[in-house]
Amino acid sequence: MIEVVSRSRCVGCDLCIRVCPTDVFERDTDGIPVIARQEDCQTCFSCEIYCPVDALYVAPLTGPAPDGSPHREEEHLAATGALGAYRRTVGWGGGRTPGSRYDRNHLFTAGMTGQPGTRPNPLSGPGLPQAESPGPDLASPH
Amino acid sequence: MSSTAQSGPNTKHATPAPQTAPLSYEPDLTADVLVVGGGPAATWAAVKAAENGASVVLADKGYCGSSGATAAAGTGVWYVPPHPEDRAAAKASREALGGHLANHHWMDRVLDQTWHNVHELAEVSRYPFPVDAEGRQLRRGLQGPEYMRRMRLRVQRAGVRVLDHSPVLELLVDEDGSVAGAAGYRRQEDRPFRVRSGAVVLATGGCAFLSRALGCNVNTGDGYLMAAEAGAAMSGMEFSNAYAIAPKFTSVTKTAYYRYATFYHADGSVLEGAGSAKGRSVIARTLLSEGTVLCRLDQADEAARRAMRLGQANFFLPFDRLGIDPFTQMFPVTLLAEGTVRGTGGIRITGDDCRTEVPGLYAAGDAATRELICGGFTGGGSHNAAWAMSSGTWAGRGASSFARTLGEYTHHRALTPLGRAGLRPSGTTRGQAGDHRLVVEAVQREVLPYDKNYLREGARLTTALESLNDIWRELRHGLAGGGETTVRARQAAAMAATGRWMYTAALARTETRGMHKRADFPALDDPGQRRRLITGGLDELWTVPESAAPVHTTVAEAAAA
Ligand SMILES: Cc1cc2nc3c(=O)[nH]c(=O)nc-3n(C[C@H](O)[C@H](O)[C@H](O)COP(=O)(O)OP(=O)(O)OC[C@H]3O[C@@H](n4cnc5c(N)ncnc54)[C@H](O)[C@@H]3O)c2cc1C
Ligand code: SF4
Ligand code: SF4
Description:
Chain B: One of its GO terms (molecular function) is L-aspartate oxidase activity. Chain A is an alpha+beta fold.
């Protein structure tokens, strides 16, 4: 669920309010979004990848994070690189390569019911992509 | 190409006032085609209707571009080169798994149309596909956010008027019962809106019963309920019990990688027979009896692990954020209901242009049945994505052609709103059934538990259906909203209706076929039941084999025509 809106980073662009499919945010009087209906959050991470300044953090939990959880602490999340990590992976933001270019999912679905190709098993060998990184690894808040 | 959807007061067209005129609609639009939804099916429908010369309005419950199962999850696509052997193999692959309910005519069309649409994605939308060593694009997968962002752009460039955060609540019909528009509620503006149109495409996705599976909470079966109120039927509703593996307490139901998993009991001993594909019921049974199932992706070697990271970034989100290495550490898993999203049931299609039994009403994507291409087996992994773009294309074209035949008359029809359950209760609001939250919880108690919906058995299905019928009776009498709550009340009603069709069909199918597995009828593929089941009704439910359905054309006839 959405846990953090960084007031210091947010530039009030309203994008998260617009893109959240379940309408979780409200605009504060000073133009900063607030998490108005956290229980409606479907943990889809969309707001995070749209935020241009990495001001949002969605904890991977389908319930609210408990008090004192690292998933609620902005400084910690910023320090560990968790803020903006998924946006980097998706490859959105100036000068980045779209993450879809690195997609190697067809290797895993080859030969699956209805997909062309043969199922690789075990999956290894020369057919596999080199370990070229799609961007910094997602940081853990721990 | 046009952007002629006009807004203006109703009086502009000198039409009679609607029977129940609410306050005032803002906006109050007219268009040739209204597309309801904002996922792949809806966006393809909108683009193709506009290219066919129609003025188009697209109304999405969420935000067209981030809303729906595809936008959050991403999809493999049934993209098969037009070589006869490849196509034959592709068609054969799910034939038995799907219980022989798919149809060759439809599989061929979907393979052709998908091939075409994916090329448009590459050429018109410049989707950044990965490339192989020779520089050829690999076009068999689509990353959700990237795909849907580009579809939104294409919709807008086609001149379609997009209404975000505008859940549609009910259909409007003319004197003849033809669908002539829809009304809904603009959540962020807090006011009702309406679109009069020549035809309506329902592309509202499936129903995952607010289970919090990835991207699926917008999918509450609204389109099914609206279609049924207009007189359309459902097909394949017994194939609506898809359950996906997810790390416990998370939403991420990406399942392809679990084929590298070993599953364990809580004490760390191997859970024999458990697996992602065939052994998922073992996981369900163990979750019921022991409460915990652990998992570790320990069958993936180094190379596989690296490739997996590049394959599906969102798969690793929960692990990375929880500090778990899924390749070396055990983690608890759960099974989340995805209902008809990765199931195959939905609104019955009665013609190649994805028309329904109701004139002016078209259905596409998960809102429609996908049995035509995958029978009773899951549409996930490839078929659903192909179906969404193909059926969207046909429905958009079909709806725009239908609208054209109406001519001048289109926007001068007297409209009757059809919404009942959750919108216009038959009695006064009172008690438990007046609170949408309690209705949702009550429905979930009947449709989410593994021992009711996944591991099916006649007596338990009957009890669950009786409970859902009680819930329905009460909510018909007492559930209503007001403002934004109306949207939630309608969602609750749609979930209840979907659950009732699901179990009605599940009880009628006294055998095991596709994903529908009956403990009391474990024998597979009873030849006498090799036919699709049509289900419908609101207060009174009915189900019949397709051949005896109370409708004019069967799918087979429509296909042959
Ligand atoms: C985790 C996951 C992985 C998947 N992987 C694959 C895969 O690899 N391959 C594959 O083929 N399929 C896959 N699927 C299935 C696939 O995502 C769906 O079949 C596909 O998204 C269907 O497209 P759609 O446009 O019909 O519905 P959706 O994409 O779900 O969109 C539905 C839209 O309707 C809108 N809506 C709902 N109700 C209303 C209303 N009342 N008024 C207005 N708008 C409304 C929603 O806001 C949403 O925009 C997967 C599904 C999940 C959940
Ligand atoms: S994670 Fe998804 S549902 Fe939750 S706030 Fe962000 S966009 Fe909205
Ligand atoms: S998207 Fe980011 S910058 Fe824009 S309003 Fe939301 S939090 Fe602020």
